Amino acid sequence: MIVTPFIFWILWLYVMIFVALYTWYIYKENEDKLPKSYSDSWYIISNKMMFNTFIMSIGIVAFILCQTWLMLIACVFLLLVQAAPAFKNEEATPDYVDKQEEQVHMVGAIGSIIIAFVDRIVHSDSIFVDKISPLIMGCYIVYAFGKKLPAYTLKIELLAFILLYINIAIG
User: Fold this and answer.
1) Which of 15, 36, 37, 168 has the fewest CB atoms within 10 Å around its CB?
2) What phi-psi label fits residue 31: left (phi over 0), alpha (psi between -120 and 50 degrees) or beta?
3) 93: which strand partners?
4) How many domains does the chain have?
């Protein structure tokens, strides 16, 4: 590990605190309601750099802490989310979606979560990482599909961030 244990925990705490603060920020910006997903926060917040900083922090810090090729690829996928944040065109109609930008955005979002969890499964000896964490994510996603998935997207993303960073800490 190139990162010292002290730096590791500082970066780990930074991301966990930043996820909590960003979630609170979008909750307050959206009149005490959470949006459907972190991606939808792009349309709510007035400072668009906050979204970019949030996405970059999650991905780059995960790569610095893990230092694996799979986590680098997951980070690149997450940067696709940042590259295509505005896939809904508010000026045309509320339901209009730019299909190309949406595809880039969705490939980045889904790909980054899947590849990050594959990285943790491949590079970890912990039973929590190998067995329990993917089971928790899988059960929650199945539950969300059984209900109404868009209403659960932010919760799935938040659970993925938390489980991923717990996995990184356990390691």
Assistant:
1) 36
2) left
3) none
4) 1
